[in-house]
Amino acid sequence: MSNNNKPSALEPYKIDVPQEALDDLKDRLNKTRFFDDLDNEEEYYGISTAYLKPLVEYWADGFDWRAQEQRLNTYDQYKVEIDGTPVHFYYVRGKGPNPVPLAVHSGWPWSSGFSLPLIGPLTDPAAHGGDPADSFDVIIPDLPGFAWSTPVGRGDLNYWKIADIIHKLMTEVLGYEKYAAAGSDYGALVTSALGHKYADSIIGLHYGHDMPPGQFANERFWDLTDGAKIPEDATPELRAGLENLVSTYVSHVAVHMLDASTLTHGLNDSPIGMLAWLLRRWKKWSDKRSDFDENFPRDFILAEATAFWVNQAIGSSIRMYRNAVRYPWVPSHNRQPVVEPPAGFTFLLGDAYPPGVDTVEGRIAAFENGPTRSSFNVINVNAHMKGGHFVHYENPEAFTNDVQETFRKLR
């Protein structure tokens, strides 16, 4: 499992955006043509001009990217090429008797920045009131095609192809014989693909979302509901939950699946267009019971948006959706469960899925009795009230504690 020496070939990497790229961004922002957006004060039609305009003006004339660069450069990071694809990753060694190497995968539209709150408590639990025996070597890659893992020279990347790249990162580049993996959203699919194909190399898995491999394999791949209508006998709570699920998640899946490049032409050329598309996801998918602007400060939002903008990563990240259809996942074996390594789960109740569930007990039961349960070798399940879809960022304490709990059973 352990790798006692950092591979000598690794050269430290620092994020350092050329000033001309920042000057160009500012120039584009200052030339923004805002649209009237009539009757959208409550954001019935999506992100409103009223919400977006002050943020864009601050991005142009108040936002300090260099300060964000300094924050992002706090931890050791590297950039390598694997299978012709750049992979940027944070790599922080654990302080404890036998740290478990753990690759943490984020989703769309997340960068590695969403997972940075996990580094301290996972690598150095003693400094955070925990047991040093629970420490990990933490590896947080930007998924290839996302943020700093660019530019990609291939158009076929998807979750199971990324899993092959991550496996090489962990075993060939970093030299671990065995390792662990964690992930949420699209990163959960990467984690599942690893757990299926490379089970012999996997100590254990931990998830923020229960997503087995094979997602988007249905005939209506663009339709998150798979054509299902709300049952006529649905309770008001279930009906409201199903309507919320659709309004939260369906639009981006449909557009990403059916018109990825068409959308990208606009988003890659217009920073306000890109920001609006990303911001709608961050705002809509986060915990509705808490204050978005407080939980997602504008400097954090704009740092994430800048990472996508300066790297022209929006198109390559969006294409991951349709590529799951164009290059379908094919099982490597027929053993059951399809994802064999022991797996733990952290569910946050501020997410829109599953609809109509509003208690910790109900969330756990929905998983235990749900369609994905049989795909995993489940050893630990927890649910928490705080947080929405962005598990690593919205409730890092819960995710950290649950990861440690899962791997206590496996060390």
Please provide a written account of the structure.
The protein is of the alpha/beta class. Helix content is 41%, strand content 14%. The chain has helices at residues 19-30, 49-61, 65-72, 119-123, 159-173, 186-197, 236-269, 271-285, 292-295, 298-310, 314-318, 320-326, 360-368, 391-394, 396-408, and strands spanning 77-82, 85-92, 100-105, 136-141, 179-183, 202-207, 339-348, 376-384. It has an eight-stranded mixed β-sheet. β5 (179-183), α6 and β6 (202-207) form a beta-alpha-beta unit. α1 (19-30) runs antiparallel to α2 and α7 packs antiparallel against α8. The relative contact order is 0.14. The mean pLDDT is 96.
What is the number of helices? 15
Approximate shape: globular
- Terminal CA distance reads 10 Å
Low-confidence blocks of residues: none
- The strand line-up of the biggest sheet is 1-2-4-3-5-6-7-8
* Strand percentage: 5-15%
**Quaternary organization:** single chain
What is Rg? 21 Å
- What is the arithmetic mean of pLDDT? 96
| Number of DSSP E strands | 8
What structural class should be given to the helix and strand makeup? alpha/beta
H/E element string?
A: HHHEEEHEHEHEHHHHHHEHEHH
Can you give keywords for this protein?
aromatic hydrocarbons catabolism; 8 strands; 8-stranded mixed sheet; alpha/beta; Epoxide_hydrolase; Pimeloyl-ACP methyl ester carboxylesterase; 411 residues; 14% strand
